[in-house]
Amino acid sequence: MDARTLPDSEPELLARLSELRSALADQGASDVLKNALVQPSRHPLFDLDYRFVQSMPDSFDSFDLRGSCGHSILAAVEAAARTGMIQPLVAGCRVRVNVLNNGDNVVCEAEETDDGGTRFTAHFLCSPPRPVNDLLITGEPVTGIPFEGRTVPVSLVSMGNPYLFVHAAELGAHTVEDLFADDLVLFDRMTRLRLAVCRTLGWDTTGAFPKVAALLPDGPGALAVRAISVPSWHPTVALTGATCLAAGAAVEGTIPYLLSGVSDQPDSDLLSLRTPGATVRASARIAGGPGDRRLAWISVAEKQVDYAGLFLPAPTSEELSWLPLTA
């Protein structure tokens, strides 16, 4: 949505988004839970200002304004180009996005574009390069979380979004087949572990963050990944999830680092993430030496956005001048 047509104050903004959710539900689109608010950037180094609002499934007036959504950043860039907010996309062009929620700087590079959509590489930048240990939410590569009578080791990492990463075997999934099964027991365990982390950190248990992903080793420089979105299994892994995993694997001692075997491939910065729906590849650019490792950027390639045109829910105000649909 064009953020210029929406209120600036948070209470008025959320009230307007509640109205929009009701209108979407009337049009049979109640499953649209991600809102990308974009406008030409006020900052001279960026093309777009982007704000993410996660609609929570429990009620039309329930939202989470923390964090971000990588796929919706790409979708917003596609929509902004299609509707004239920025220049049309061509192969090789780069759109610089200022994420207002958390201060992230994201460069969306068009690999290939046609009438139906665009394939992107997304680059999440750290400027200046960030000490890798600063990515650890608790300051530790592994944190023990009290969980149903035992302590479960998890890695809590923040890059793109805050994530908790857990060895899937801790939750009963010992093989990739177990991990990728449509297993409601595993889903419930992952959800309960996420809530346990929220309680340990003092975070809101009704919000969307931290995200959660269960991991298994999948060969040198590779992980099998199962992640939860809102409110179900993620078909692959979120773009911010791939970014956060690549960041986590760059920090010695974390669960992504230990399971991926990246220490056995010192000359490669590529991390392969196998999911039920696709394999995603992410790379982390690290600056500095052994005692001063710093993250410069993370790149995730071959992310496709399909453009489906404009959708204007009939009951909404004319001020909501466009609502592009992308997938």
Which secondary structure elements does this structure contain, and how are they paired or packed?
Elements: H1 10-26, E1 34-40, E2 48-55, E3 63-64, H2 70-82, E4 94-99, E5 105-114, E6 117-131, E7 143-147, E8 150-159, E9 161-167, H3 176-180, H4 184-201, E10 211-217, E11 222-228, H5 239-249, H6 255-260, E12 270-274, E13 279-287, E14 294-310, E15 324-326
Parallel strand pairs: 2-4, 9-10, 11-12
Antiparallel strand pairs: 1-2, 2-3, 4-5, 5-6, 6-14, 7-8, 8-9, 10-11, 12-13, 13-14, 14-15
How would you describe this structure to a colleague?
- This protein has 327 residues and is α+β, with helices and mostly antiparallel strands.
- It has two domains: 3-130 and 305-326, Roll (Diaminopimelate Epimerase, Chain A, domain 1), CATH 3.10.310; 133-282, Diaminopimelate Epimerase, Chain A, domain 1.
- 21% of the residues lie in helices and 36% in strands.
- It has helices at residues 10-26, 70-82, 176-180, 184-201, 239-249, 255-260, and strands at 34-40, 48-55, 63-64, 94-99, 105-114, 117-131, 143-147, 150-159, 161-167, 211-217, 222-228, 270-274, 279-287, 294-310, 324-326.
- The protein has a 15-stranded mixed β-sheet that branches.
- The longest helix is centred in the middle third of the chain and has 18 residues, at 184-201.
- It is globular and about 50 Å long.
- The two termini are 15 Å apart.
- Residues 314-325 have low confidence and may be disordered.
